[in-house]
Amino acid sequence: MKKLCLGIESTAHTFSIGIIDFEGNVYSLINDIYVPEEGGLHPGLVRDQHLNNFMKIVNRALTEAKISIKDINLIAFSQSPGLGPVLKIGAWVARMLSQLVNIEIVGVNHCIAHIEIGRLKCNIKDPLSLYVSGGNTIVSAFESGRYQIFGETLDLAIGNMIDSFARDAGLNHPGGPKIEKLALNSNNYIQLPYVVKGMDLSFSGLYTAAKYLLQSEDYGIKYNLNDVAYSLQETAFGMLTEVTERALAHTEKKEVLLTGGVAANKRLQSMIKYISKEHDARFEVVPLKFAGDNGAMIGWTGILRYQAEGRHEINETFIKPKERMDHFTIPWRT
Ligand code: ATP
Ligand code: FE2
Fold this sequence. Notes:
Layout: E1 4-10, E2 14-21, E3 26-33, H1 43-65, E4 74-80, H2 84-101, E5 104-109, H3 110-121, E6 128-132, E7 137-143, E8 146-152, H4 158-168, H5 176-183, E9 196-197, E10 200-201, H6 204-215, E11 217-218, E12 221-222, H7 225-251, E13 255-259, H8 266-278, E14 282-285, H9 288-291, H10 295-309
Parallel strand pairs: 1-4, 4-5, 6-13, 13-14
Antiparallel strand pairs: 1-2, 2-3, 6-7, 7-8, 9-10, 11-12
Helix pairs in contact: 1-2, 3-10, 4-6, 5-7, 6-7, 7-8
The chain binds adenosine-5'-triphosphate and fe (ii) ion.
């Protein structure tokens, strides 16, 4: 039997277990997602749901892979970055399973995992990556031994910004797919704040302006939600595309990877595809199953780290809620 890793994702709303072999074949992937009844994510409530459900999710993943926990050779978990109380659950489950069955353990950075699963599943080597999700907005590429960050948000993450706007418009979580659908009904662009500072982005002014537009009447015109959704997407995605294109011109990478939950958006895909073509770069989107938070990406990144540097000791498995992806050298790529 091939060597197997059990990957545990627990940074935010998703508790996920992925079972993946050392060649990158995924045997099972089970997700349990916390959906707030109203408002945003409350870390304590997310933690409670993960704490109540984790064993069911582990068991379902093992059953679907038709294996027992004793067949697992490595446990990987998301060690950084994320919501502290939620990260702790994943780390705790990882340590418990590791010690119970005597399996080696390795902690991984969640943002790096979004890129590594893209490299694996899209079969690309050295992309410029646009990683867009509820909690992150990062343009990065591998340079000088690290995943260097070329541009990032200075305030809200793109997914969080769209979800917040959707919530203000009375749509429930997650708002991203609903705003995408509404935007298809319009091509009436309303001017909104477009804020790119150097290579970084700021979405808070855009969010506030779009929110007020929903409530305002200028010259007797009440703005229509479809038009605001369309304009919000065009502005935000235009900003992302500008920064990605400049990073592409600078790094001269020949591949572009779109990853994270917001990668599902067809309009964003088409914009990034367009600039990739302009620069003769291959464009890839992570398959949707692996675009949002998932245990398979944690498992795969754990395997890469383990093969390059071995396991972590238990006293190295503390969570690091604020750790950035450019903090690490990447031994499996150097
Ligand atoms: P991270 O911890 O990496 O920040 P996350 O916890 O936000 O990730 P993901 O599953 O990667 O989780 O991303 C969820 C986000 O993706 C939500 O903000 C959701 O609205 C957004 N999203 C999903 N589908 C679409 C879509 N079609 N268009 C725009 N946004 C989308
Ligand atoms: Fe994520």
